[in-house]
Amino acid sequence: MPIFVEERNITKGEIREGIIFFLLFCSLRFDLCLSFIKKRERNIIFTLRLSEKKKRWIMTRCLE
Question: What are 23-33's pLDDT values in tens digits?
Answer without folding.
Answer: 666 665 555 55
